[in-house]
């Protein structure tokens, strides 16, 4: 991978991770509100929506941005956004048109993040030892 491509990928890793880092901060600072929201959405193990979710998001953010087994970080983001989409953005249960529109947007944002996580996993795994600006290489290699 060229220096230019590696720098572009690094910038993308940092920007992509920023969303999950911001969400982690929110989970740490507003944990009780996150748990209450998870309970209202009837999410199993709603207590995990506070600081445990924040810690999870912090770790995957660092994994991808710093390049510490970034392929595993990408997989873990994919695993995170699927239940988030179905429990927190279940637009098919919302009656109010404005709230429904917000939930549709949130649902498809998470679907897009799943797609991006799958793409990142493939990029990291295929780069192997050629992944630059990373603390470690990927755990999986294609």
What does this 3D model show about the protein?
It is built from 5 helices and no strands. The protein has 142 residues and is mainly alpha-helical. The chain has one domain. The longest helix has 31 residues. The radius of gyration is 16 Å and the shape is elongated. 29% of the residues are buried.
Key words describing this protein structure:
mainly alpha, 142 residues, elongated
Short overview:
This protein is mainly alpha-helical and about 140 residues long.
Strand residues, percent: under 5%
The shape is elongated
Number of domains: 1
The helical percent reads over 70%
**H-E string:** HHHHH
Low-confidence stretches: none
Tell me the layout of helices and strands:
Blueprint: H1 3-29, H2 31-40, H3 51-66, H4 70-88, H5 97-127
